Here is the input.
Amino acid sequence: MLQQPGQVVLGRALLGRNFVNPFFDYLLIGGGLSLFVVGFILFNPLGSAFISTETLPYFFLLSNSAHFAASTVRLYTKPGAYQSLPYVTMGLPVVVLAVLIGCMLQADRLAPQLTSLYLTWSPFHYAAQSYGLAVMYCYRSGCTLGEQNKKMLWWVAMLPFVYNFFIAGNVGLHWLDFADWLQYPVAQTCLRIFAFTMPIAAFGGIVFLFWRIARTEKQVMPAISGVILFTNAIWWFLLPPLQAFVWATIFHGIQYLAIVIIFHVRDQLAVPENHHSRTYHICWFYGACILLGYGLFHCFPRAFIFMGFGPVESVLLVVAVINIHHFIVDAFIWRLKKTDSNRKIVESASPVPA
Amino acid sequence: MDAGLNSHRSLRAIFALTVLFFFFAIGLGLVQSLSSYHRLPPINSHYMPEITALIENEDYGRVIPQLELASSIDPADTEKNKQLLTKVCSVAAQSLIEAGRFEDAIVQYDKAYAANPNSTDVQNNLAWILATCPDKDLRDAPRAVTLAEQAARSTNYADASTLDTLAAAYAESGAFEKAVMTERKAIELTPATSRSDLQRRLDLYLSGQPYHSS
Here is the structure.
């Protein structure tokens, strides 16, 4: 049976305009891959030969470490970044190194605070990335969002962070609870009610967004925007807090690497004197990210151990500081100013071939 | 304009120095890494090889603050760190007892107890030293009885070692009847070839004297 033209238009609008192709975008950037893995973990938690404490470090290196390094590689290879962001490119590393050494010297007092800060900030960062990607796909797919709907999208994206802020131990509210008032029965009851209602609000909020945008904007929000919000919510609501941190970081890393490589390749191909192929730029960028990730997470802490600092602060403080550096850099390199190359890539009609 | 250029020039110079330090550190770390690691360790146990090395070298002065820090800043591994802290403090305490440093040994057992208050071994060892310490100022009979009773209860009063400790604690607190009864039970549970020490202590309790280590 032939499809009605209206159904075809609706189908296309729902699919959205992808960067590479629907399979790549939905699986890697949308986080579809993580849904399969989360299912696998829930039914087979960290017990198989495939996902174990032996293999996990390699997932970390190829996804997590590479992704943290990716923001740095992107910052220093982005055309015009030194001129447009002098303090981020040249000032921030100096400040970060000073903070790292300062915390090393005062590890007993500062290390727990810095670690809690980065663990509190992480879910916010992932939520903000989900929001940014969801808006980017809306914008790219021609679904213009009004201020109210943008705000609504922001809050729906933020709910997993808010949940984590209130519920997870050692971070967020539990970190700031100096007076131990969260131990009172009333506070415990409130937290239990909160923990029960938040997932309903988060998943229901996504459905509500589709409905609200269709009603108020007379447009269809691309499904990938919803999938991005959904996968971020799945990571934080379905997995226990520790596994959520591990897997959200890995899948956020995959998502991030996919999108940042697209932007990098686009930028490099647009350079007039470019003589290299698309494959070359992909391999160069990902290779640089893995190398820098290995250097940052594996070699850098060992240098501090060699210099006489304790192994605990050397590893965990380096990890915390790299995370915080990544969060700050990310706040600048994804801006969509009219003159920025990011804007041209998002607006470009043609998909980026794989 | 000139001021802006100059500030950027200074920034560039500081940045260049930072980059230099960074790559030097990475190189240093790489050399260290290649000389000692053959594979990537799990991320949460990244620092464990160094801590294990400190334990093997009996560098307890450095191990314990490291483990305390790890317990406070690594939410992912707190339980594992506590187990390790308990083990390290207990080993450190044993070494300190052998060196005659009883006060320091009690401090280590206290740390082990704080990290893992349900450990029968820690309860038993701490109770023993509090009941039998040669230094009378360090003995604490009421606490020894409490800890030894916890340890004996958790073994269902069927372990000779914890009953021996409980008897010593009772004797130190002046409850010799209970001490005699408990020591007899401990002797029953001990193979005939290993009863001599326990029998000696029973004789002391029968004569109304507590047992103190030498």
